[in-house]
Amino acid sequence: MAYSVTTPSNRVSLYSSGLEPVFGRLFDQAFRDFFAAGDSPEQSLRKLTMDVSETDKGYLVHADLPGIEKDAVKIQIDGPRVTISAETRKTDEKSEGGKVIYRERSSSQFYRSFELPAEIDATAAEAKLENGVLTLNLPRKAQATTQQITVK
Length: 152
What we know:
By secondary structure, the chain is an alpha+beta fold. The protein has a domain at 40-91 and 105-139: Immunoglobulin-like (Sandwich). The protein has three helices and eight strands, in the order H-H-H-E-E-E-E-E-E-E-E. The strands form two sheets. It has a four-stranded mixed beta sheet with strand order 1-6-5-4. Strands 2-3-8-7 form a four-stranded antiparallel beta sheet, with no helix packed on it. The longest helix has 16 residues, at 19-34. The chain is elongated.
């Protein structure tokens, strides 16, 4: 492996490539997001990250809900539209003879609404929350078939 020394003469080529401002903005945004205050109102509603895959009978959704109890999850199905929302509440800790010095864990809300290519059979849909991952099994609604009736 060879090492190179950046000198004033070859530093110009780094800046003239046009990539330095792009990477600079990406780094600044990542730095701001990492150190952003978690208690601010714009940070309290977080986008739910998920994976959606298609199966023979419908769709399978895996969504990350870290620290959420299953009673706090709400799932709505309206035709092909699926809405998932969840909320955690900050618990007020009371300690005898002491006080909370530093708190980073707070309340947060997750929300995601998306539309699938086919209507979902809401009566046959199943949801399971295990280890902070919500698994949805969303079967497609049976398509209405046209039938021909013979005249007697």
